[in-house]
Amino acid sequence: MMNYPLTLTNLLKRGTTLFPQKEIVSRELDGTIVRLNYGEFYRRTAQLANALRELGITKNKRVGTLAWNTHRHLELYFAVPCMGATYHTVNIRLSPKDIIFIINHAEDEILFIDGDLLPLLEAIKNQIQVKTFVVMGNQKKYNTTLSLINYEDLIAKQPENYDWPELDEWDIAGMAYTSGTTGEPKGVQYTHRALVLHSIVAGLPDIMNISESTVMLHIVPMFHANAWSIPFATVMTGSKQVFTGPRATPEDMIGLIEREKVTFTAAVPVIFRMLYEYLKANPGKDISTWKNSVCGGSAPPPSLVKAFKEDFDMEIYHAYGLTETTPLITWNVPKSYMKLDDQAFYDLKTKQGLLVPLLEMRIEKSDGSEAKWNGEEMGELLVKGPWIAKEYYKDPDETFRKMTKGWFRTGDIVTIDKEGYIKIVDRIKDVIKTGGEWISSVDLENEIMAHPAVLEATVIGLPHPKWDERPLACVVLRPGMKGKVSEKDIVDFITPKFAKWWLPDKVIFIDEIPKTSVGKFDKKVLRAQFENLYQKDQE
Amino acid sequence: MMNYPLTLTNLLKRGTTLFPQKEIVSRELDGTIVRLNYGEFYRRTAQLANALRELGITKNKRVGTLAWNTHRHLELYFAVPCMGATYHTVNIRLSPKDIIFIINHAEDEILFIDGDLLPLLEAIKNQIQVKTFVVMGNQKKYNTTLSLINYEDLIAKQPENYDWPELDEWDIAGMAYTSGTTGEPKGVQYTHRALVLHSIVAGLPDIMNISESTVMLHIVPMFHANAWSIPFATVMTGSKQVFTGPRATPEDMIGLIEREKVTFTAAVPVIFRMLYEYLKANPGKDISTWKNSVCGGSAPPPSLVKAFKEDFDMEIYHAYGLTETTPLITWNVPKSYMKLDDQAFYDLKTKQGLLVPLLEMRIEKSDGSEAKWNGEEMGELLVKGPWIAKEYYKDPDETFRKMTKGWFRTGDIVTIDKEGYIKIVDRIKDVIKTGGEWISSVDLENEIMAHPAVLEATVIGLPHPKWDERPLACVVLRPGMKGKVSEKDIVDFITPKFAKWWLPDKVIFIDEIPKTSVGKFDKKVLRAQFENLYQKDQE
Q1: Quick check: B404 contacting A, CB < 8 Å?
Q2: Is CATH 2.40.50.140 correct for A249-429?
Q3: ipTM for the assembly
Q4: Does domain B1-26+35-183 have CATH number 3.40.50.1820?
């Protein structure tokens, strides 16, 4: 069989030659709607590639984007890799410090930035090596000291075709950085091969089910793990695409769903929550074409899944993945033979799902053996496959930590049930390692937080001279409950739920749980604070 | 990204570990129904691999099959390539001469044969080098002089797991021979990579739309181009599979559709015709689950597509491909925005369809330039892609003829309309090359056969001193019409339909059109007979 490479150029050519009339709709910051068809999208993409070549972009050079979901970002998603260069989607939500780090670390040559994000760039311009800035949007003038090229001016007079080079499928197409909670962000490079394979598998009927008749609303940011490859998959199939544009509100998104007859979208739980609340507060919107969605980031709350289904006949599926995995690892869909009552159905919905085709997995227990498929044994999820990172960009130490013997360590502690559905129960850094076994801090937290007097609680593992680690529960009581609930009350409350050795050795009442900048429990702080608690006990 | 190979082993493991309860149903020759689940299928496949290893099968050795669609053939489809060897599906419908040639040419080490086909093997046993024969079926004894191993005995005591080797995606998984109308059959080798990519793309929503809930009836023979990769795709997705078994009648097939609640099948036009006639003659069958099918081999007659849709709510899609192309090249599905009346819809159904993802095409006119997308310009279809053959097995001459500059020449003369739908108008060997242009013999034949006095007609190109070739029409009149229709009548009848230079220089009335063994017009014979007709005219 021919050695024909898997490249994004093939997907671009297919979508734009077979479906030139299909529509792309994109919202500008001021609400203006831009409409173009796939034929125009192709010509603009070719113009962009010509302009990039003039600006000195050659094979493997990095083109950074600080951008929302727009048709221009889509043009960058194709023009840059198809000319042999690498798109680098910068997560606009990172701290300025991290943004400076990753732009310099990736050695971006040019930055494409949406107009409303210029203040962000202004603030860091002297700390990054990039000198060429292209501003996107329909605004004519910007109040800035930056020297800017306007995107539309840049591409305007360029030829409407491009002599796309013959690429190797192992050529790098894109890159993104993980927003790791510890240390510097880590860079991941995506090959053409990985993106093409991921796009096809993502489009399968048991996964996103993307067809020519799909109308896709792009909510998941294009600066998050290739927007889950949905822009590539939809171009391949010739689907109508709708881009939410900068700073879209729930009203903007629902408006687009209603007017453009959107059938599918991808987003995180907080967005689904906002959309649901908007719909309840603003009845009468016709969103009847919107039948399915994928929820990533974390599992959608079952109550929200149920509410969308019952109130709006819209089904939310959960998918799980990471920046290092392009991102798809699992997809949660019930099997056709499962007879699930309401409770079982929504329990299933809280799981991450079944491993998608072409990947391989291993669930490694604390002793290195494989976890049984019984929904109870815990292990770290390790994966292999054609869209799994084999290294971090210029970071051999982190590569060594996370990639072992051909496997990528997800850092997620999971169980797997007898039907093969994976459920994340903890992060490897938070799981409590005791006597050669693991205890899920998350499970303990959930049960403690079910106590009516508890406002919030976190459980951490502390060093212990005999057992390696033992759990400590840090509990914040509801206002007025202080002094009315004892350590024993808490332990008694959760005792029926766990094996004896799972129970925390101590429960400490605190005023507040320290949080990270994104609002997650910052267990590092508590672990440092109580580091010697169990050591001292033994002295 | 990891260099993780695309192999059938991955599909086998996914299907059998995630969906061990899903069913495989297979009909024996005597009508007995065998039921096994994916767990059992995996264990039997591992047992088969162990048995093959004992029989001396090692990497790259060829295992031949002379077999119908059964669960055992499915086990061979996986055990052989996943252990690193090559399955060679022998087309049981070929002449004994061709079967001898291909078994020897492929150097098959073992032959797996269904019991009812033993007479075929008896007749050729002294002309093939194979000495090991495994017979399949539930019959205990066979009346034969051959020394046979029974399949069930062969695998019975083998271990139920196998240490599958790590394969390269470029390793050969299978092979098949084209049943070329000229010369010896030509061998095509399929890599793991090609079969995996083909299987995923074939499963996409806009193509076969294969999901876990699909119930697949395998009608297209497993000795035809990997059964269009459907066995691989369905194992990957965990679909229920139903095998028609040896010598299945329409009654057998409809019975399986009814009892097993089949949703999809793949077959050729003659089978669809037989199924339709059976259903009309035997009303009351509940085939309501059967919603979609793919028709290959040639385009299904629009009347049949319409009849199935109107009478049984079952939609037939056409796909086009060749043994050399694994086989999928195009798939015919209307685009969502097309507003087609009945006539336009069924006209579209006669076309081969849109190029499937990951392939690339070129429609090469007689002068080497590319045909315009206007539904009129004709050119030979050339294709490239990850499942297109780059060579014929041990046949450099044929490789040289058919693979040029990285393209595979399909030998099909096509037009392409402005929406990108390909339509085959002739074979390159039959198209009439005149004055640097091409005339479709098929188009002329169809119009001549529309004349009420004409029973059948064929048009051939004859050597011509000035125009290179000119058309000759050979016409068979209906009984009683001889002498009542003139050459001029025929030409006048078709004149309104064609440009003047398309019209045949002569019309000859003959008693019968010579036919090949499979009933096609044998134009070679006529070309030889009339070879000098136009040369002489000029002398």
Answers
A1: no
A2: no
A3: 0.94
A4: no
